[in-house]
């Protein structure tokens, strides 16, 4: 007989013609994940008497269920290195892990010592190092390690633990370059004239803003980085990297969107496309291209950027969906309201400024009345199915006389306790600009402004919205074996989605795991980084004459806390089928052609 377990993926978008499911990502509010699901019967292999686990065709996977690429570059093709220290694990680094690093697959943290709860590499300074206390010496050992760990990744991105990254914006930017050429990309910076400039007069990429190195260049660097580590011992770490790259005859490629400071240190200008030249200007712009990174952030700023970027929602079966508004963040929208006799300036995701004049007549002196970003969330759908978002930004503004909030009964629980707020109503369909009612209907401007009550200013904004994405855990792998490196092989689940998503396999591509008398079928579960809470699996089998036994499980009804540093943990399941020899009497069925479909559903409750 054949007891076959199948792994398929399911797209939660719209209607389905077949019942399949995938291992969904968890979040802190709960979702469900299915390791396999009952589906159409599979082809039985002849001449095989032991039960087998069949992992379905890559060609049969619904490709909507796979993570989309940004201009051809996928997050799994970029390895991330983060410089940190023991004293920042619970502050800076924890904020990164709870925000943008949730979207990352391959990341390594570099410190002076091992950190038990993280995939950390402890680094050592060179013997002649002159700046041991500053940590400037960490860059070369970390880059050497990244090259050895991820030699096939197209890019590495290197930054500090107080840096926030808009991941899709980074992928989109790097997607414009070829990884098989020499590229060193980041924020153009130069040494201080009163310090390193007297010794090294080069341009380099700011390490705090983060820099990217192509695979081709990193391979070339690997031949000289040890020498650079021993030779350059007096400068800041990012200057050392820039000098080592310069020794190869490669210059920095300045790119827009990398920022050495938080957003409030810049003057945001809608006229330009951004400024890649570091401390040569304090002007920034997102009018053409979106920001990639900000540096020197405290933990509150890190979380603010993330919550204003992401709008999450639940599907009917507990699956998690997300709209990533990072492509719109910091874009500027200006209008004049004849009704209110005020001009309004929206810096998307951050602030709403007001001025009691018509900006088209004279240059306004903007007042930053709404500068406390509260939330972004999807609240409704248009008739055509496009989403409607609310983005709330609070503070006590001039435009309201007195308080008035105590008299307002908000139906929206997210607005309690009541605060004076500007609520951006973000729609994805065109409209006419409020101060040009006879103009063309389009997206990318403010459609209307009104006072909803004594506590709420509403601004209707039309934008080109991002499409809804299914949220997965990119750090999660499930395999049929351990890879010998303390991780599960990712031949079943790769990055939280079916491994087939990353392959162009033929319809004949299948994998068989034997479930015989000596050993049950085993699933190895592991994380590349971070932590994940998984609950006890729900298991079903068909047809009715087949049975399963869980012989080894790390999952309990109270939940099991998975950590990347613990290595793979095994879920072992044995399935058997029986046949009736006479009424009321059954025996084990070993005949060829018997097929059993097993469903394993795992609920995930939180990750970081």
Automatic annotation (TrEMBL):
Gene3D superfamilies per record: 3.90.550.50
Membrane topology listed for this record: Single-pass membrane protein; Single-pass type II membrane protein
Keywords, sorted A to Z: Glycosyltransferase, Membrane, Signal-anchor, Transferase, Transmembrane, Transmembrane helix
The Fringe-like glycosyltransferase domain, residue ranges: 74-260
Please state the protein's primary subcellular location: membrane
Subcellular locations according to the entry: Endomembrane system; Membrane
One term of GO molecular function: glycosyltransferase activity
Which Gene Ontology cellular component terms are annotated? Answer: endomembrane system; membrane
Would the keyword Ion transport be found if you checked this record's keyword annotation? no
Where is the secretion signal located?
none
Record has Plastid as a keyword:
no
Which InterPro entries does this UniProt record tie to the protein?
Fringe-like_glycosylTrfase
What's this protein's name? Fringe-like glycosyltransferase domain-containing protein
């Amino acid at each position: 007989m054949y007891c076959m377990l199948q792994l398929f993926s399911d797209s939660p978008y719209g209607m389905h013609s077949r019942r399949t499911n995938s291992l969904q990502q968890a979040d802190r509010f709960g979702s469900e994940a299915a390791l396999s699901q009952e589906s159409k019967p599979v082809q039985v292999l002849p001449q095989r008497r032991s039960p087998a686990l069949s992992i379905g065709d890559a060609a049969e996977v619904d490709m909507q269920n796979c993570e989309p690429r940004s201009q051809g570059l996928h997050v799994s093709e970029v390895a991330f290195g983060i410089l940190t220290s023991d004293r920042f694990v619970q502050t800076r680094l924890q904020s990164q892990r709870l925000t943008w690093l949730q979207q990352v697959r391959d990341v390594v943290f570099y410190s002076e010592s091992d950190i038990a709860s993280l995939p950390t590499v402890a680094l050592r300074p060179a013997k002649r190092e002159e700046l041991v206390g500053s940590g400037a010496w960490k860059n070369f050992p970390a880059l050497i390690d990244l090259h050895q760990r991820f030699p096939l990744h197209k890019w590495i991105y290197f930054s500090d633990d107080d840096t926030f990254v808009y991941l899709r914006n980074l992928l989109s930017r790097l997607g414009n370059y070829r990884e098989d050429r020499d590229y060193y990309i980041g924020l153009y910076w130069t040494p201080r004239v009163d310090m390193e400039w007297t010794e090294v007069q080069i341009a380099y990429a700011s390490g705090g803003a983060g820099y990217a190195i192509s695979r081709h260049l990193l391979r070339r660097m690997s031949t000289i980085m040890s020498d650079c580590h021993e030779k350059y011992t007096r400068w800041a770490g990012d200057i050392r990297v820039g000098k080592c790259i310069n020794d190869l005859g490669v210059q920095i490629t300045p790119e827009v969107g990398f920022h050495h400071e938080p957003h409030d240190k810049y003057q945001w200008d809608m006229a330009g496309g951004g400024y890649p030249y570091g401390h040569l200007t304090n002007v920034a712009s997102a009018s053409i291209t979106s920001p990639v990174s900000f540096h020197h952030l405290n933990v509150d700023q890190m979380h603010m950027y993330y919550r204003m970027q992401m709008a999450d929602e639940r599907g009917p079966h507990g699956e998690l969906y997300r709209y990533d508004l990072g492509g719109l963040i910091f874009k500027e929208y200006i209008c004049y309201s004849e009704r209110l006799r005020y001009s309004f300036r929206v810096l998307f995701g951050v602030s709403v400024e007001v001025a009691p004049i018509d900006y088209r007549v004279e240059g306004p002196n903007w007042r930053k009345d709404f500068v406390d970003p509260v939330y972004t969330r999807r609240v409704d759908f248009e008739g055509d199915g496009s989403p409607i978002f609310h983005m709330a930004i609070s503070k006590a503004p001039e435009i309201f006389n007195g308080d008035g909030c105590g008299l307002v009964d908000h139906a929206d629980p997210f607005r309690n306790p009541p605060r004076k707020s500007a609520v951006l109503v973000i729609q994805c369909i065109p409209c006419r600009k409020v101060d040009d009612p006879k103009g063309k209907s389009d997206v990318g401007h403010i459609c209307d402004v009104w006072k909803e009550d004594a506590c709420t200013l509403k601004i209707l904004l039309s934008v080109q919205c991002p499409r809804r994405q299914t949220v997965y855990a990119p750090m999660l792998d499930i395999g049929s074996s351990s890879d010998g490196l303390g991780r599960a092989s990712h031949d079943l689940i790769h990055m939280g989605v079916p491994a087939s998503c990353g392959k162009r396999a033929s319809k004949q591509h299948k994998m068989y795991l034997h479930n015989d008398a000596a050993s049950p079928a085993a699933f190895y579960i592991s994380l590349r980084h971070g932590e994940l809470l998984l609950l006890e699996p729900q298991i079903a089998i068909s047809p009715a004459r087949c049975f399963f036994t869980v012989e080894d499980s790390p999952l309990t009804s109270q939940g099991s806390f998975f950590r990347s540093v613990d290595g793979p943990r095994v879920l072992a399941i044995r399935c058997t089928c029986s046949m009736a020899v006479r009424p009321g009497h059954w025996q084990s069925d070993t005949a060829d052609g018997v097929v059993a479909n097993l469903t394993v559903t795992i609920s995930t409750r939180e990750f970081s």
